[in-house]
Each structure stands twice: as C-alpha cells, then as structure tokens.
Design brief:
The protein has 180 residues and is mostly helical. The chain has 7 helices and no strands. It comes from Pseudomonas nabeulensis.
C-alpha cells in the first residue's frame, strides 16, 4: 500500500508540473501510466473517470483523485489531490512574481510563444489516446466524429450532445442491443 501511495504521489506531482496549459496536455501520460503500466484501471474506467472529472464542477485535476481512489482507496485519493495541487501552487506562487519582473525579455517571449504549439500537440495526442480507449465500433466512432463536427461548426451547446448520448445509451441498454 505504501509503495502504491509513493508511486501515486510522485506521478501526480510530475503531472501537476507538466500540465502547462491544463491537464489535457498530460492525459496521454496519465493514461499510459495508470492503465498500461500500473494496471490501476481499465480503458473504460479511465474514460469514465475522465468524463466524470470534466462534468463535475471544480478543478480538472479531479481525474487524478478518481485514479488515486481506485488505486489505493481514500488515502490514495488524498495523496493524489495533494500531489496535484501543492507542486503547481508552489510553482505558480514562486514563478508568477519572477515572470512578471522578466516578462519583456526576449527569451521569455520566445518560451511563451513556443508553449502554444506544444500544448496543442499534446492535446491532439490526448484526443487520439482517448478515442482509441473508447471507440470499439464504427457506430461509436461515427457518433464521436459527428459530435465533434457539430460542436466545431455550430453554436449548439455540447451539453445537448451529452444528453443525446445518454438517451441513446439508455435506449440501447433498454432494448438489449449493443449499439455503442
């Protein structure tokens, strides 16, 4: 149990520090470590925890709390929460003042400009990993891509697509067919 908590603390602290631009940039590594390397959860559990953490109010780091709880119970959830919040908070506290004093230097400007393409690349990689973890049928893949297109090309709020997905899933289960 202590070894699991130590692994959890170290990994969550690393994910906290590498999450420049938000947790989505680290989602690929979080998936690899928690599903493939440590076998703390399955692909389906990971996607469910990710969806739940996005739907709930509060910080996006809730995914790590769910993983910690799955790996080591309440102690794991608390360790994951603290390891996620403390390093990032300390870095922000220390770095914000320094960055404000040096924001006009050329190399700080270059670093800021380079973070955007890095974050976009990591988010695209996370999207690919999540889709591979979730999509097991052509129907499911088509619905995912159609939902993404609707969100991108229209002003329709994504919550309506989520509600539609819940209704389709419930109908599928009620009819006893495996559509998705």
């Amino acid at each position: 149990m202590q070894a699991t908590l130590l692994h959890l603390m170290l990994q969550c602290a690393l994910w906290s520090l590498m999450s420049i631009g938000g947790n989505m940039v680290a989602i690929g590594d979080i998936h690899r470590y928690s599903v493939n390397d440590m076998n703390w959860l399955s692909d389906a559990q990971f996607v469910a925890f990710f969806a739940l953490s996005q739907a709930l109010p509060g910080p996006n780091g809730m995914l790590l709390v769910f993983i910690g709880q799955q790996a080591a119970g309440l102690a794991g959830a608390l360790v994951a929460l603290m390891a996620k919040l403390v390093p990032c908070a300390v870095l922000t506290y220390v770095g914000a003042g320094w960055l404000e004093r040096h924001t006009d230097t050329p190399w700080v400007q270059r670093v800021k400009r380079s973070l955007l393409p890095i974050s976009i690349g990591l988010i695209l990689a996370a999207t690919y990993i999540l889709m591979n973890s979730l999509e097991s049928s052509v129907t499911s893949l088509v619905l995912t891509l159609a939902s993404a297109a609707v969100v991108y090309y229209t002003r329709l709020n994504a919550i309506w697509l989520i509600i539609l997905g819940v209704v389709l899933g419930l109908c599928s289960a009620w009819l006893g067919v495996n559509w998705f």
